[in-house]
Write a structure and sequence with these properties.
Elements: E1 8-13, H1 15-18, E2 23-24, E3 28-29, H2 31-43, E4 48-51, H3 59-72, E5 77-81, H4 84-87, H5 94-110, E6 114-118, H6 123-126, H7 134-151, E7 154-156, H8 179-192, H9 214-237, E8 250-255
Parallel strand pairs: 1-4, 1-5, 5-6, 6-7
Antiparallel strand pairs: 2-3, 4-8
């Protein structure tokens, strides 16, 4: 498939792929997958795009719930991004998570789909209280790279660039990219698949900003824990997920700028 000639793009994943942090459920979510689709459509206006991602999904859930529908859409390009919801959990099995990702890589590439994925930034530099998870992120990235190499999957190395830990690329919850963060991820994906006109400008640092004092930084950590970490842990203890009662926001292939026109396309199940 010549660069830029893709006609059917399907995105698989969790909240990042769904677009959390870039818009909201009232005005609509955009996110890196939508932005990447716009890059593709600028080169091929006939491109059709589906986004099967649902917030809160683990890698295993992405594989069991999204892979089949994705293959049925016969994409020539797919993004597969998952694993963060797994590594945040106490019972994390790195080999199992990487296995789910590799199964998706294998199934899609065997079907003739060009697949692109990404690596994850150092979580400790984004949320210092999450420092114990640093080794998990590094190990998962290593496993993603190895699986991608085995199956000819392109990798956007967002985990290796210092700019991706800049707080301005993240929302207040520090788990989801901001609009600027999603924009940078989309540009990284475009470079990974060698789209004409793409380059490494997404790796450039943002303008310097004032460094907070230790007291200010400590206060920010406490506020973050109360506003975001606490509620997240509460959902885990109750066996709840932010994706409960939600479906894919864009389950059908549509022109990039088409508006989903049914309850099944809104990302929330219709009320019985």
């Amino acid at each position: 498939m010549p660069s830029g000639a893709y006609l059917r793009y399907v995105a698989l994943g969790d909240s990042q792929t769904e677009g959390l942090g870039d818009g909201d459920d009232t005005v609509g979510l955009r996110g890196f997958a939508d932005r990447f689709a716009e890059h593709l459509a600028a080169l091929e206006p006939a491109l059709q795009y589906a986004n099967l991602a649902v917030r809160g999904r683990t890698a295993g859930q992405v594989r069991t719930q999204q892979l089949g529908p994705a293959l049925a859409l016969r994409p020539d390009l797919a993004t597969v991004v998952a694993g963060v919801n797994d590594l945040l959990r106490p019972r994390y099995d790195a080999a199992e998570v990487a296995g789910h990702l590799e199964e998706m890589f294998a199934a899609l590439t065997d079907a003739g789909t060009h697949v692109v994925t990404l690596t994850f930034p150092d979580i400790a530099k984004i949320a210092p209280l999450a420092r114990p998870l640093r080794s998990r992120v590094s190990d998962l990235n290593t496993r993603i790279r190895a699986a991608a190499t085995r199956h000819g999957v392109a990798v956007a190395e967002t985990g290796r660039q210092a700019v991706t830990t800049d707080p301005r690329l993240w929302t207040a919850d520090r788990l989801h990219a901001s609009a600027l963060g999603h924009e940078r991820i989309a540009a990284a994906l475009a470079q990974a698949v060698h789209l004409p006109g793409s380059d490494d400008a997404w790796t450039l640092p943002l303008p310097p900003q004032r460094v907070p004092s230790r007291r200010q930084a400590a206060g920010a950590e406490l506020r973050w824990a109360a506003a975001h970490l606490g509620p997240w842990l509460g959902r885990r203890l109750r066996g709840r997920s932010s994706g409960d009662a939600r479906t894919a926001k864009r389950p059908r292939l549509l022109p990039v700028h088409a508006t989903p026109d049914s309850a099944a396309d809104t990302g929330r199940r219709p009320t019985p």
